[in-house]
Amino acid sequence: MSQDDLTCEEVLEQLFAYLDEELDDARLAAIDRHLERCRDCFTRAEFEKRLRARVHRTGTAPAPERLRQRLKKVLDRY
Prior knowledge:
This protein is mainly α. The protein is built from five helices and no strands. α3 (25-37) crosses α4.
């Protein structure tokens, strides 16, 4: 393993910053290389990408009135 190679643990610790493109180019490239050869980390990254996309799509739908009322009651108590 070369100095530029990342462990799975390192990749997973930085996964959200990677997906948000908050890392420098060298770190993004190192994670890309790791994901090309590590099926487990690739699968995790793909899951997180799809989950984010689904949450983003559903985040635009208004909450049902019943849920709004329940949340309002909880918030009013505090």
